[in-house]
Each structure stands twice: as structure tokens, then as C-alpha cells.
Amino acid sequence: MTRKNRITAALLSIMVLSLGIFAVSATNTGNKALATAPDITKPEQKLVTVQGEGVINVAPNIAFVTLGVDTTNKKVLPAQTENKEKMKAIMDELKRLGIPEKNIQTQEYNIFPEYKWEKERRTLIGYRVINRVRVKITKIDDTGMILDAVTAKGANTIDSIRFAVSDANKAYQEALKLALKNAEEKAKAMVEQFGYTKVTPVTIIEGSQASIVRDFDQQRMAVTEAANVTPVSAGEMEIRAQVNVSFEFSK
To answer: Looking at the domain covering 62-164, what would its CATH class be?
Structure first.
């Protein structure tokens, strides 16, 4: 083979090799594109998003009462002693009425001076002692009677009466079911206007849960001999659940 022929053969080999590499590269590129391309044969998903709400009315069966003793005196020790004696009488009465110690919790105990302002000058006039406890009452019908009993033993402040449900989670689950049903009904009502009849949940997001404790009186109630705190009505409580649901709709 002449030198010219050898050069020609080498050039042909290089051309063949280049064409092979190009072909492999093109094949790999084609495969990648097919793997990532969207499936245009699948119809676009149609979604509607709605909010559902469920409400359950329940009768409270627990009462929380914050009560205590507020005493004052020109000297701190007599004010503290009077407060201590009255609180002990109240605690003994609560136990006598069947309130277990675990259902009585101290909420506040303060001792502080009291002043009177005259001509831009303050003068110490005495001391004030405050002791308050929170009492959990599981026999809710006894609430009024218990308030009368502790008042007779020296309680002179009742900050609030709050009501709750012992099995709150069970009531909330029922409200949650109603919220989901409400969301489905809303979705069907919306899509039926456009000729669609079927809805299928795709995503469900739970919303906020309403408070299950209702305040009887937010304002502090001072207990005096003339005050009548015996009539206590728990009424009904609303337990609310909310959901946000996205439905796929079809005919």
C-alpha cells in the first residue's frame, strides 16, 4: 500500500468512527427526551377547592372556678394571718365537699403595700394579701352550692367560672366528620353547575379547632353578702372543626 493509500484509509476510519459516536450520542439524547416528556394522552386534572365547617353542640360536664381571699391591714403580718386562716377554712370546706386535692391548684399569691397619694406625695396606708386557687368541679350541678359554701368560709373574690367537656376529642371528631361532609356538598354544588357530577378528594387539610372552654363571666366578680352566685347555668357549647379540601371533578 502506497503512502497516499494509507493516508486515505486513515481518513476513512476517522470519518466512520466520528459517525458512530454521533449516532450513539443522538440515540442517548433521544431516549432522555422520551423519558422526561409529559404524557400528553392523559387529560388535565380538574380541581375545585372548598372549605367545610362542622359544628357540634354539647352540654358541658366540668366547671373550673377561680376563687380566693383578698385581705388588707395596716400591718403585713395581720393581713397575712387573716388571709391564711380564711384560705385554710376554704380548703377544708372544699375537701369536705368531695373536691380532691389534685383538683385544687394555687393560681396566685401576692403580698404588696398600698399607698395613698396626697399633694404629690405617697403615704403607706397598709398591706394587701391575695391568695387564689383554681378548682375543678366534676359534678357540675354542684357548682352553685360550692360557691355558696366557700363564700361562707371567707372567699371574697371569684375571678371566673369556665365550662368544658371531659371527652372533647370525641366531640371534635364528630364535628370533623360534619366538616368533611359539608366540604363535599359544597364541591358538588359548585361543579354541578357546569355539568359535572362526580367529586373525589385529592388533598385534605385540617383547619383550626375552636376553643372548647366557654367563660361564664370574663369580668372579676366580687362576692358580698348581697351577691347571689348560686344560679349557675352552663348552657351549651359549640365545638367547631374546619377543613380545606381539594376535589377532582369529572362527569
So the answer is: alpha beta
